[in-house]
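Changelog note: in this version the structure field was regenerated for every chain. One regenerated record is shown below for reference.
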Amino acid sequence: MEKNNLKIFFIKLISITFSVIIIINVIFNLIFADKIEKIDNLLSLDKSKFRNEIREKIRNEIRNGLEKENILNQEDKVLIYKLYKKLQKEFAELENK
């Protein structure tokens, strides 16, 4: 009888252990795998292949932006214009010194 109880205990222990391992693996893959891949991509900026991919993405975005009638929306235009005016004023002050 005691041998049978011990056998059931080990079967339950092994099944719970496998379940915990599977759950940890699934949680890790769902939550952290994408983030780790993004971090890996950022760390691989020194690789020319990745730099070329980024360069092509930037070029495509510029081409898509140039095809549009308005690149910026009105709020962005106002913000950039205010920044431009402020920089212009600071450069003028720099020239006067």
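Spot check on this record: The chain has four helices and no strands. The chain has a mean pLDDT of 85.
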